[in-house]
Write a structure and sequence with these properties.
By secondary structure, the chain is mostly helical. It has a domain of about 120 residues.
């Protein structure tokens, strides 16, 4: 039922326009989440390796960018950051198990932030339909964060795969719910 005093703002109109995208992104996230939960050892290793590759490429970009920076301090800062990122990336690529332990802790922190931002987004969406699904997704992220922190490092080898899988499933369902609820109403001719 529609609230007669509700005035839709530009953010709400953009959400309605993107409802199909939200729906399909949600479906893709649910499928990926199920795969990650079914194969947690593989998905944990994939996440660690992906982060290793990202750090390596970021480090290379920073390293080569350092030579275009003017000034001794910024040059050495960029050079050091690039070399450190390259070293961390290579280390993760050759030691993914150690990387999983460190990444599990970082993921716990990221989920806490994701939950906080998700709560803010849900309340910005309110009173549109689907805001409660976004709020529940944010709360799930915070609960996952607390679970990670409480059981770290013992759960590191399987945790990332399962946690990313569950988070993808919950966030995907929230996006499917929001995308379905936000579909523009079809006007009768």
């Amino acid at each position: 039922m529609s609230n007669p005093s509700f005035v839709e703002n530009p953010f709400h109109r953009r959400l309605r326009a993107a409802s199909n995208k939200l729906l399909w992104i949600g479906v893709a996230m649910v499928v990926l989440g199920i795969a990650a939960v079914v194969f947690p050892l593989v998905s944990s290793k994939v996440v660690a390796l992906l982060v290793g590759w990202l750090l390596l490429f970021f480090g290379l970009l920073m390293f080569f960018n350092a030579f275009s920076i003017q000034g001794t301090g910024p040059f050495f800062g960029s050079l050091l950051l690039g070399l450190l990122s390259i070293a961390c990336g290579i280390y993760l690529l050759f030691n993914p198990l150690v990387g999983e332990v460190a990444l599990t802790l970082m993921v716990g922190m990221i989920f806490m932030l994701q939950g906080a931002f998700g709560i803010a987004f849900a309340f910005d969406m309110r009173p549109l339909k689907g805001w409660v699904g976004m709020l529940l997704s944010a709360i799930a992220s915070i609960v996952l964060s607390i679970l990670i922190m409480a059981h770290w490092p013992a759960i590191s080898t399987m945790a990332m795969g399962i946690i990313f899988g569950v988070d993808f499933i919950v966030a995907g369902i929230a996006l499917i719910s929001a995308g379905s609820a936000l579909k523009p109403a079809k006007h009768a001719a």
